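TOKENISED FOLD:
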Amino acid sequence: MERLLENWGPDGTDADALGFADLDTLHFASVTIFDREFLDALLVIECNFDGDLETFLQRFAQKAQGLADLLNCRIGPAVSAPGEIVETLRAAAVKPAARHIGALGLSRVEILASEAVVEEVRRHLDANQGLLSQAAAPAVAAALRQAFNGRLPPVSPRRSAAEAMGAATPLVLAVLGLLALAAFCLVKHTFAPLLALAALVAIGVVSFLSAERREPVRESPQARDDPGARNENRPGFAQNHFSSIAPLKTGPVRWASLRLFMWVLNAVARLFYTKGRLGRIPSIHFAHWSIVDQGSSLIFVSNYGGTWESYLDDFIQKAADGLTGVWSHCQGFPASRRLTKGGARDERAFKRYARDTQAAEAIWFSAYPRLTTSRINNNRAIVEALAGVSKEPPERWLARI
């Protein structure tokens, strides 16, 4: 398997490979072999794509000429026909338990089309500096809209309020359920249901804090350092890739708290972090957590802008609570308390842990390697303004150019 991946090149686009460049719905993809002492070797194919899983699998199986050879290195029956490949991938597919998308609602086609339009707008302004330099912002805006009338890609609303609420339906239903319970108690003049719920929550909190105190202060990482991990700047790329795997702490309390925390984190991200930022971090294109290997390990995969150091610094300074809340369920993570405190705030220990659990991807593909999340969202705002569907004043969206 390693020889196959090496022959296909670092982006997997060589002949008879995985066909990533031919999939016009694919944003990022990676292929990583996780080989650790605490688990059997895992082949992980990460794909961040538009549309539904079934449609993507059908196209992937047709385009990737080398996929059958890769899958036939696994334990299991051999595959050859596209239908067998699709069935194998469908059975192995793992949806993320929590995820973030930096350009939410934008397809790969829309991202690339917006970049092309904005570059053309800049060239148009360069060629007409004398005409536009003395004009007021509304006049410049009108001139640009006239010049690009009929030359814009289709522009549809990125995300409505109803879609945002729908994405966080479980959290919304939980809140509505609590409100309904409170209303019931007020009408019936009884607080027994609320007291019972409060008692269950208290038992859960006490059980978690007790389990947390019993854990070692600093467990030794069970994942070896990978000296081949590619975590520095790539020439010509504005992005990097990070993947890690770590064994989960055992016990029913940790099992339940991890899933509950990721459920809440995922719902909050779908509801609030929809404008290109995860908390205060603006550099993440795609990031997701997945529980794998029969619930024994946690994989984190991210495609981000900037360097490895700056990325982890952002996590420490701007999102330590969320990061600690998830990763503190893994063995070897720096000591945490009350779920979200400590942990990632220990900079040296956290970066050591990130190195220890990191794995080098054999193949990494980006459909737009020179674009940052800020540039993608900025381009879209300009195109929306040119199409007349933006509420931004001319001064603001012209400044984006």
